[in-house]
Write a structure and sequence with these properties.
Radius of gyration: 18 Å
Number of strands: 0
Oligomer: single chain
Mean pLDDT: 82
Distance between the termini: 49 Å
Helix content: over 70%
Order of helices and strands: HHHHHHH
Number of domains: 1
Length: 176
Amino acid sequence: MDYSSLVYILVIIGLAGAVVYLFSKMKVDKPGKKERTSYIGSDPNNLSSKQLQLQAYERLTLLAGRIALPGLISRVSQPGLSVRDMQVLLSQTIRQEFDYNITQQIYVSADAWNAIKSLKDQNVLIIHQIAGALPSEATGNDLCRVLLEFLMNDPKGTLHEVVCEVLSYEAKDLLQ
């Protein structure tokens, strides 16, 4: 195992650990109704505020699914691309999806938004690390295949599921 592989593994473990920590912290920290700091208006119990927050959690859950690598690969993969072109296409798509939904952060907790940012950063990092490890003559299909194999063999590859659980937990908490 070379140095870059070790760094890559440590970064992935760190990102996944941070999200799992945030999720477990939210479950433990709920002795009573948790006060939210990110809501519209002065009253967090205001019906329109709750509706905006719930819509934001819904949009961010959709975002997490759209930037999850298996779905992303099946949606944007194009035959005939080089590994570098596919790397750029996947990374740009993730960033565009994230940028499109960036305003949702004002409606959700900092923990939920940080989970989304961690997912985006992890997926871009995985794409760049795996693309960088492939030979220059590799194809975009090779990159997609190796990415999917990595996700199948890495238990932390399903970070999007953890993020969706965080979002779902907070949305349900908001309804109580």
